[in-house]
Design goal:
Length: about 210
């Protein structure tokens, strides 16, 4: 039986290294969780939330799924958002997609992928809503990159339309929803300039959409 012992060794080395530089780190970490950020990202193994923004454990609350989709029937995602906003009182929700996303690529393909097609339908809807923006694009990579960006923007809208976030704004809580995208090719983030901090901004955003 392969017990993945090498991963336990890596874990021991990691913990030892952290305690070497910060002896009280794990003691303080175990006593409370108070992150300022909720990260809603893709499950892709190449897009690790903490490492991308160089934050330590305890500094960012994370939810990940295929293609960073926020669906109003997904109780898992909604529960994460509710806990982050109402209990942890995060100040920022970051929806972060990435270029070259396999889920987005699969949604663009005209073939059967099995069970995941039910999930990809949400991305296909994003493409359908913005189909006119793709009419003059012949390069497939360009098309993929655009849909990756539009998907993030659409998910920002979905986050803002949850009763959780709207109630937070009605209560004058400090909360901003951001839309970012990450490039695996160079490790850099790009702000898609769709940050929304209150109901007025959300209503303006919906009109533009």
């Amino acid at each position: 039986m392969n017990k993945l012992q090498h991963l336990f060794i890596k874990n021991q080395n990691w913990a030892t290294n952290i305690k070497k530089h910060n002896p009280d780190f794990f003691t303080r970490l175990s006593q409370q969780q108070k992150p300022e950020y909720l990260w809603i990202g893709c499950s892709d193994s190449r897009v690790p939330a903490n490492q991308i923004v160089d934050l330590m454990p305890g500094e960012i609350f994370v939810h990940r799924n295929i293609a960073n989709v926020v669906v109003h029937t997904d109780l898992n995602c909604l529960s994460v958002i509710q806990y982050a906003v109402e209990v942890l009182e995060v100040k920022h929700i970051i929806v972060c997609g990435h270029y070259g996303c396999g889920g987005i690529k699969a949604a663009l393909e005209n073939k059967d992928h099995g069970l995941i097609d039910n999930w990809l339908r949400h991305i296909k809807d994003v493409y359908r809503i913005h189909k006119d923006k793709f009419n003059d694009i012949t390069d497939e990579e360009h098309k993929l990159s655009l849909l990756c960006e539009l998907n993030v923007i659409e998910q920002v809208n979905n986050v803002c339309n949850t009763t959780i976030v709207q109630n937070a704004w009605k209560s004058n809580k400090e909360l901003t929803v951001h839309g970012w995208i990450y490039s695996i090719k160079d490790g850099l983030l790009k702000d898609l300039n769709v940050s929304i901090s209150n109901l007025d901004q959300r209503n303006t955003f919906n009109k533009k959409e």
